[in-house]
Design goal:
By secondary structure, this protein is of the alpha/beta class. It has 16 helices and 13 strands. It folds into three domains: 225 residues, no CATH class; 91 residues, Beta Barrel (Elongation Factor Tu (Ef-tu), domain 3); 136 residues, Nucleotide-binding domain of ferredoxin-NADP reductase (FNR) module (Rossmann fold, 3-Layer(aba) Sandwich). The strands form four sheets. It has a five-stranded parallel sheet, sandwiched between helices. A three-stranded antiparallel sheet has the order 3-4-7. Helix 14 links the parallel strand 10 and strand 11. Helix 6 runs antiparallel to helix 9. The longest helix has 34 residues. The chain is elongated. One of its GO terms (molecular function) is flavin adenine dinucleotide binding. Its cofactor is FAD. It is a multi-pass membrane protein. Keywords: 2Fe-2S, FAD, Flavoprotein, Iron, Iron-sulfur, Membrane, Metal-binding, Oxidoreductase, Transmembrane, Transmembrane helix.
């Protein structure tokens, strides 16, 4: 179905939804193929003959674990290489989540591979485990480098554990995770010097070399070079700094040919401010306007580096990496849309309210605040909804004690289940695409209510401000 408004023509309907699913499935199949191709080639060559006595079995498992973990590492890095045709299908949030989930299995496989390498020497030369380990690391420089690589992976995975991550600043976590690239580079030499399958199977050596080159070049261009080249070429600078309600500040970025960045409302950038103390620190912020002549971010003061950004000077040069995310019209498949915001989550919701193709009454905006003074961008949202004839539901009141995304029920008011209250706010929500942005706990509560209303997951789009 095509939706034709005065300003936009947007493809909607079941066919679009199926096309989105097919593209996502194709990316997942590609990742699976990267792992299975070398595994199947190895099985075809070795067969059951590799599982004879104990020495053969340990050697075979060592070789197989090497191929699998190498494939996983390549996928692991590709997930966060910012490759546009992958990110635009899956979304950086889901790619990052998959990257996190692969961390521990990769570490376990690395330990198994390292242990089986040492154990193979123990079984062949009757050495102790310690003597075998020292012999390998002292006599083969590439294995010593691989040992350093393993230690770096341990550090990266430990800092990714939730309880540790909560105590670490985003900037510190980011710097530590740059070590994962050093860890991968340090692991490569021993594969070409001592890797049995790399040495005896030219097909596998060529296969992995091409994968390393492909991922490495994409990583270098999209994560390092392109943001600098495009930002400096566009002469990006801060053109306006405007204080907003609820300890937030809107920062507008101007420059030449901003359309080249291809930003859509609802997406986000990684912002680097080119000052002496902040140039190396990336800050993820959602676009809070319909990006055209300017790209604007509305930043909440959380007490970390975001506090410094409240005082940024007009004229300061910046570098933008992105845009990222699929919290945009590209994932929309229904004519009716419900936009739900809480806290600083109003930034991308306000941008979507301004830019989504819509007929009068198609869009309902639900904005959860404590009171009017707590509502950042409220006056803009009211103007947009009035001009475009959206329905605006401002939901005010203190936070509910039961964890509801709605306010506490007042004295004398009858209690209702969240999903019933939500239906009162947005009667057409069952036939809508639902966009949700706010704190993680709040968004989770909204998801529970939507599940009870039996709204399909494919029509629920969530952006959380977390890392």
């Amino acid at each position: 179905m095509w939706m034709d408004t005065k300003t936009q023509i947007v493809l909607l309907g079941r066919r679009k939804l199926l096309a989105l699913h097919r593209r996502r499935d194709a990316v997942e199949l590609l990742a699976i193929a990267v792992i299975w191709v070398p595994t199947l080639l190895f099985i075809a060559e070795v067969g059951w003959g590799g599982f004879g006595d104990l020495i053969k079995t340990v050697s075979t498992l060592n070789r197989l674990s090497a191929l699998i973990v190498t494939s996983l590492l390549i996928v692991h890095i590709a997930l966060v290489a910012r490759i546009p045709w992958i990110e635009s299908i899956v979304g950086l949030d889901k790619l990052t989540l998959a990257h996190k989930r692969l961390g521990k299995p990769i570490l376990y496989l690395l330990f198994f591979h390292a242990f089986s390498s040492v154990l193979s020497l123990v079984l062949v030369d009757s050495k102790s485990l310690i003597d075998a380990f020292l012999y390998l690391t002292l006599n083969y420089w590439s294995l010593a480098l691989a040992t350093v690589s393993l230690a770096l992976f341990v550090l990266v995975v430990v800092t990714s554990i939730r309880i540790v991550r909560k105590k670490v600043k985003y900037e510190t976590w980011y710097l530590v995770h740059l070590l994962s690239y050093a860890a991968i580079f340090a692991s490569i030499p021993h594969q070409y010097e001592l890797g049995t399958d790399f040495l005896v199977q030219p097909v596998l050596q060529t296969y992995f070399t091409l994968l390393y080159v492909f991922v490495g070049l994409n990583l270098l261009w999209f994560r390092a070079l392109q943001p600098v080249v495009m930002s400096l070429g566009a002469n990006l600078r801060v053109v306006e700094v405007k204080p907003e309600a609820n300890r937030t500040t809107s920062i507008s970025i101007g420059g030449k040919s901003l359309a080249r960045f291809g930003a859509e409302a609802g997406q986000f950038f990684l912002l680097r401010v080119l000052t002496r103390n902040q140039w190396w620190r990336p800050h993820p912020f959602s676009v809070s306007n319909d990006p055209g002549k300017e790209i604007r971010f509305t930043v909440g003061n959380r007490g970390d580096d975001t506090a410094l950004l409240q005082e940024i000077k007009v004229g300061t040069r910046v570098i933008l990496e992105g845009p990222f995310g699929v919290f945009s019209e590209s994932k929309r498949s229904r004519q009716r849309v419900t936009l739900m915001a809480a806290g600083i989550g109003v930034a991308p919701i306000r941008a979507l309210a301004e830019s989504l193709a819509a007929e009068p009454g198609d869009i309902t905006v639900i904005y959860r605040v404590n009171d009017d003074s707590d509502a950042a961008l409220l006056s803009e949202l009211e103007r947009i909804c009035r001009d475009r004839q959206h329905k605006l539901q401002l939901v005010k009141g203190p936070r509910a004690k039961n964890g509801s995304f709605l306010p506490e029920v007042g004295p004398g008011e009858a209690w209702q289940a969240d999903e019933l209250r939500l239906l009162e706010l947005a009667p057409e929500i069952r036939d809508s695409d639902v966009y949700i942005c706010g704190p993680a706990a709040w968004s989770k509560s909204v998801k529970v209510a939507l599940k009870r209303l039996r709204i399909e997951r494919s029509h629920i789009h969530i952006e959380e401000f977390a890392w």
